[in-house]
Amino acid sequence: MTKRILNVVSNVGHFDDPSHPTGLWLSELTHAWDVFSENGFEQTLVSPAGGVCPLEPRSLKFPTYDSSAKAWHNDPARMALLENTAAPEDVDSAEYDAIYFTGGHAVMYDFPGSAGLQRITREIYERGGIVSSVCHGYCGLLDVTLSDGSHLVAGREVTGFAWQEEVLARVTKLVPYNAEAEMKKRGARYRKAVLPFVPYAVADGNLVTGQNPMSAKKTAEEVAARL
User: Fold this and answer.
1) Side-chain-side CA neighbours of residue 2 (13 Å)
2) By three-state DSSP, how is residue 142 classified?
3) How many other CB atoms are found less than 10 A from the CB of residue 90?
4) Helix or strand (DSSP H, E) at 17
5) d(CA 192, CA 87)
6) N- or C-end of the chain: fewer Cβ atoms within 10 A?
7) Angle (deg, nearest 10), helices 216-226 and 26-38
8) Shortest CA distance to 122 belongs to which of 102, 155, 101, 93?
9) What domain range includes position 175?
């Protein structure tokens, strides 16, 4: 049976201050998509509201705007996938072996409050599937609870964009909360690389998380190895 991956992207296009745009950090999708494709996995895009997923403008300038991201950005068919993502209510979690939450600061706004994404994540996880995220994508795991009411991340090793990296990115006054601190409040055992902005991923059973934009490929490879 071909393995199937559900890739989660955001519908948000700006911070609380509308003059500061944000969106999907493109390479966090494309680097993982490439790995999953190379393994023959089928892939679907979903977002909290369905429909359009904006791109983070800075992701089109940063060093991660490499051949993978450029190939997607220059392919009308691929870009069209980001114009018409599925909504959670259209997704049958039983059809997927893994869920992968992409990042970009946009996800801080619409991932945590999505009951539909929480349902899908819980169902995949409790069935033994893989739950994964990269960078700010771990915000999508903050409020996921299991059938017994406990937080999915409680007591689990998790990584994601570090507060130190927010400081270095000079966005501490723009972000709506400190994701690293919120993850720790849920009882997660937060881990990060010694140096900021280097590839780093943590696998704890069927929970796989990556720290920053440079970690997408590594995270996807960990997911693929478990599938």
Assistant:
1) 10
2) coil
3) 11
4) none
5) 32
6) N
7) 30
8) 93
9) 4-226
**Locus of tokens 């980001």:** 82
Residues listed for the chain: 227
When divided into structural domains, the chain yields a total of 1
Do 86 and 116 contact (CB within 8 A), yes or no? no
Whole-prediction pTM value?
Answer: 0.98
Query: What does each C-alpha distance from 33 to 69, 137, 167, 190, 227 come to in angstroms?
Result: 10, 15, 29, 26, 15
Q: 169: which residues sit within 8 A by CB, 6+ positions away? A: none
Q: How many helices (H) and strands (E) does the chain have?
A: 8, 8
| CATH code of the domain containing 68 | 3.40.50.880
Please report where in the chains the tokens 């600061």 appear, as a residue: 105
Element (H, E) at 130: strand 130-134
Q: What is the residue whose two structure tokens read 């706004």?
A: 109
- Is the CB of residue 99 less than 8 Å from the CB of residue 69? no
What is the tens place of the pLDDT at every residue in 137-190?
999 999 999 999 999 999 999 999 999 999 999 999 999 999 999 999 999 999
Tokens of 209: 């998380």
Can you tell me the distance from the alpha carbon of 227 to that of 149, in angstroms, rounded to the nearest whole number? 27
- Token couple for 194: 């010694």
Residue 95 has what pLDDT?
98
